[in-house]
Amino acid sequence: MSDVTVIGLGPMGSAMARTFLAAGHDVTVWNRTASKADPLVAEGARRAAEPVTGELLVISQISYQAMYDSLGEARLDGRTVVNLSSGTPAELREAARWVAERGGTLITAGIMVPPPGIGQPGAYTFYSGPKEALDRHAGTLEALSAVTYVGEDPGLAMMFYQAQLFVFWSSLTSFMYAAALLGTAGVRPDALVPFVRELHADLASDGPMGYIKILGEELGSGVYPGDENSLHMQAVGMGHVVETLRAAGLETTVPEALHRLFARADAEGRGDEGIGTVVESIRKP
Ligand code: NDP
């Protein structure tokens, strides 16, 4: 019997199947569009006529609906389904019930690297659901990435995944605004790269700009000291950023939203506190 069946052979599922093969596993593959299995079969994978085969099913598809469409009414008795697809926490919780009704166990997951990063050092995946089921298969799943268990609630893996993705996408988007702004003055985007790299390194550091750690502590304690850089000062400064972008002829959706959020926290009377106080406004829409 196969060690692992990979269901969904887009860029991610194909990279996973290939990585399992390279790690010496016996791999079965299934995809809605069957021809996508051809290269993997040539590399040693077994082609399945039906998706439900073997004890460990690893799914990488566009959504949880794709899992329902693929597995249909098949029983899942004794099988562990590890779904690494994107979805909402509510969808993941519902999927855990759906798999359990069919006799199987669902482990939910969010993988934190693009396909070329699968199996590479530094890769990690958030997993949630029943810990003992994950422990049983961790030896196989470790071929893909480090196994980072975040808790029993099936929705948690996607919450961690989306939290990280939100930080990732918003960081990259702010970089694009910054590059576009300097571009209006004829500055090449790569002129900005060393400064942005340094900023990110500083944010991750233990130094005075180490705001990731500092905010982590402040958000935990609910105390946001603003003696040296008040939120009010930063709300005013953010307003200047919006005006500058607008005057440069750029679109301002994201900076305006940021400014509105800062200004709201300021108007709520917390302008003397530090930037961390913005979280209080986020928590009360
Ligand atoms: P896609 O998200 O485009 O998923 C493609 C796969 O989904 C194909 O196997 C496709 O089958 C299948 N699929 C789509 N709809 C259905 C359906 N209704 N029934 C059955 N199968 C269906 O590509 P990726 O491989 O890039 O991503 C897979 C998952 O991994 C996604 O959830 C994504 O969010 C996540 N992910 C991706 C990353 C990346 O960088 N690529 C990074 C981290 C996570 P078919 O070939 O037949 O169309």
> Biggest β-sheet, characterized?
8 strands, mixed
How big is the Rg? 23 Å
Question: Using DSSP, what is the number of strands?
Answer: 8
How are strands sequenced across the largest beta sheet?
3-2-1-4-5-6-7-8
Which percent range describes the beta-strand content? 5-15%
Low-confidence stretches: none
CATH topology of the largest domain: Rossmann fold
What ligand molecules are bound, each kind once?
NADPH dihydro-nicotinamide-adenine-dinucleotide phosphate
CATH class of the largest domain: Alpha Beta
CATH level-4 homologous superfamily of the largest domain: NAD(P)-binding Rossmann-like Domain
What CATH architecture of the largest domain would you give?
3-Layer(aba) Sandwich
Query: Structural class of the helix and strand makeup?
Result: alpha/beta
Note the total helix count: 11
Number of domains: 2
Domain 6-phosphogluconate dehydrogenase NADP-binding: 4-151
Domain NADPH-dependent reductive aminase-like C-terminal: 153-284
Keywords: Oxidoreductase
Family: Belongs to the HIBADH-related family.
Descriptive notes:
Keywords: Oxidoreductase. It comes from Nonomuraea corallina. The protein has two domains: 4-152, NAD(P)-binding Rossmann-like Domain (Rossmann fold, 3-Layer(aba) Sandwich); 160-283, N-(1-d-carboxylethyl)-l-norvaline Dehydrogenase, domain 2 (Orthogonal Bundle), CATH 1.10.1040. It has helices at 11-22, 38-42, 64-71, 89-101, 131-141, 156-183, 193-204, 211-221, 231-247, 253-270, 278-283, and strands spanning 4-7, 27-30, 46-47, 56-59, 80-83, 105-111, 124-128, 146-151. The chain is of the alpha/beta class. The chain is built from eleven helices and eight strands. Helix 9 (231-247) runs antiparallel to helix 10. Helix content is 49%, strand content 13%. Bound molecules: NADPH dihydro-nicotinamide-adenine-dinucleotide phosphate (NDP). Residues 8-13, 31-33, 36, 60-62, 66, 69-70, 85-86, 111, 114-115 line the site of NADPH dihydro-nicotinamide-adenine-dinucleotide phosphate.
